[in-house]
Specification:
The chain has a single domain, classed as Growth Hormone, Chain: A (Up-down Bundle), CATH 1.20.1250.20. The protein is built from 25 helices and no strands. α5 runs antiparallel to α6. The longest helix has 39 residues. This is Major facilitator superfamily (MFS) profile domain-containing protein. Keywords: Membrane, Transmembrane, Transmembrane helix, Transport.
């Protein structure tokens, strides 16, 4: 039985984590606590076994070495992985600025459906992929998925009409469904809540950094003679081959949990498990718990995160799939449009790490990520309004709309923040797995619907699509404010309840045992939400 008392900081458990770090990370701390076999009685989890016979306290040097290892291996690998995913799924936009549409004889809404059908595959695969990541080794599941969708990218070279394009786009989405949810779960398993925002931002940078060199490469491919293959086919040949190589690396390196990662020593595994257990968010459980699924489905906070993702996605839809066509509408050639998309990727390259650093290192913002989402959303909203006011018309003023098309992409800095909220505020392995699946399912539905508002008859202005984007961005502001209010109200309620019952949380071992119990945030009185 765990006996908690109120935490000193009623808004989150961050203050408690800091206090524990200060107490338990001092080298030579004289009061060490060791896990014995009796502490683990009844436990069959890898995370619990990793602690057996180990001291709970890690020295400051040990924890710094642990973070360096994770940051130097996992963050770059996930950035490369998510970057390849983004480049692969949006390669159709670059191919469309070349000769893909004419070569495949795409007419009417066929191009928009080619974009949307990818998300049907993603939607179908999201929950099964999450179950596979829970039941089996996460890194191996994701690595096999990369090998499969790399092969699909190569098959795109053989497409001759819209039917073939629909098929490869569907299977591309199906196999890519394991990637981002797995990275969210791995981040939540390896880093403490205080450390997570920056790590989410750093690996999400792959989404905006990798497209830049590839746009230059696509430009070079566009200048190649169309024999023996048209330039757009070379794009899919290159990306498919590289994706298979990345898949092999992920298969070997990407972990399942800190309790069994091959790049950790036994001592590092124990320290990594204890750090996350203290945070009460859980490590990993292979046991599927139906009550946690039910709790996730009934949790309004998870639904708010899901709908925030839904409202965040229209802006990246413009940047990823239609910006080249819109820019071309101002009177530029297809090759010039490829290069003029680069500023749209540079903006989030700056915004993502900036937002990650602010929400990690500025104490006033650590528990106000929702408010940061509001600020970034408002900037993107202004840019979307300006895009509507200055539509693409040949000969019109180009500088102002091009600047706002670039600034519109700041919305992508919201992506890692929502991932952080989902990962930090869902306790229990099955509940978090379900929460990620729910959020990504709504993400898929949004990306199925939004491209249909970009009607071919309105190209290149796409006024209906821009209006949908403006409406969604405004709704996102309201949802983020509501999330902040809801989480803080629940934290205050818990503090008051614990104070009335006189419960305590001061014992470190009890806190770690609670963290290993794989209990949900709703049932764990020590859990505090980080809005």
């Amino acid at each position: 039985m765990i006996h908690p008392t109120p935490l000193d900081d009623h808004e989150s458990n961050t203050a408690t984590d800091d206090k524990l770090d200060a107490t338990h990370l001092e080298a030579g701390h004289e009061h060490t606590t060791v896990f014995d076999a009796k502490d683990l009685a009844g436990e069959d989890d890898d995370a619990a076994r990793a602690l057996e016979g180990q001291e709970l306290e890690g020295t400051e040097a040990e924890v710094k070495a642990l973070r360096r290892r994770m940051d130097s291996i996992l963050v770059p690998l996930m950035a490369l992985g998510v970057g390849m995913l983004l480049v692969d799924k949006t390669a159709i936009g670059s191919a469309a600025t070349l000769t893909l549409q004419s070569d495949l004889h795409l007419v009417g809404a066929q191009y928009s459906w080619a974009i949307s059908i990818y998300f049907f595959g993603l939607l179908l695969g999201t929950y099964p992929a999450n179950l596979l990541c829970q039941k089996f080794h996460t890194g191996r599941v994701v690595g096999c998925a990369y090998l499969a969708w790399g092969s699909v990218m190569l098959c795109t070279m053989a497409v001759t009409d819209y039917r073939g394009l629909y098929i490869v786009r569907f299977f591309l989405g199906l196999f890519e469904s394991a990637n981002n949810p797995a990275f969210v779960l791995i981040t939540a398993r390896f880093w403490t809540p205080k450390e997570q925002p920056l790590r989410y931002a750093l690996w999400a940078l792959g989404n905006v950094i990798l497209p830049i060199p590839f746009l230059v490469i696509f430009y070079a491919l566009g200048t190649v003679s169309p024999h023996p293959l048209p330039p757009w086919k070379w794009i899919f040949c290159l990306l498919g081959s590289l994706t298979i190589v990345v898949g092999i690396v992920i298969l070997i390196v990407l972990p399942d949990s800190p309790s069994n990662w091959r790049f950790f020593t036994p001592r590092q595994r124990a320290i990594a498990v204890a750090r996350i257990a203290r945070a009460q968010t859980g490590i990993k459980s292979h046991v599927l718990k139906p009550y946690q699924i039910k709790e996730a489905v009934l949790d309004p906070k998870i639904w708010i995160c899901a709908f925030m993702f839904m409202c965040q996605q229209p802006a990246p839809t413009i940047v990823n799939n239609f910006s080249g066509i819109i820019i071309k509408g101002y009177g530029f050639t297809g090759l010039e449009s490829l290069l003029l998309q680069i500023p749209s990727w540079i903006v989030p390259c700056v915004a993502m790490p900036l937002v990650g650093c602010l929400t990690t290192f500025v104490p006033a913002l650590q528990n106000r990520k929702s408010l940061v989402i509001v600020v970034v959303s408002l900037i993107s909203l202004i840019s979307e309004v300006m895009l509507y006011v200055y539509p693409p018309v040949p000969g019109a003023n180009k500088a102002i709309p091009l600047a706002f098309i670039s600034l519109l992409s700041i919305d992508q800095a919201i992506y890692p923040l929502i991932n952080t909220l989902v990962g930090q505020n869902s306790g229990g392995a099955t509940k978090r797995q379900t929460a990620v699946a729910m959020v990504w399912s709504i993400y898929c539905i949004s990306n199925i619907a939004v491209p249909q508002s970009f009607k071919a008859s309105q190209s290149p202005r796409y006024q209906d699509g821009v209006i949908v984007t403006i409406s969604a961005q405004a709704t996102l502001v309201l949802l983020a404010l509501g999330y902040y209010v809801l989480c803080n109200a629940e934290n205050r309620r818990r503090e008051k309840e614990m104070e009335e019952q006189g419960l305590t949380t001061q014992e470190d071992k009890a806190r770690i045992l609670a963290g290993l119990a794989d209990e949900t945030d709703k049932r764990n009185p020590l859990f505090r939400y980080l809005p």
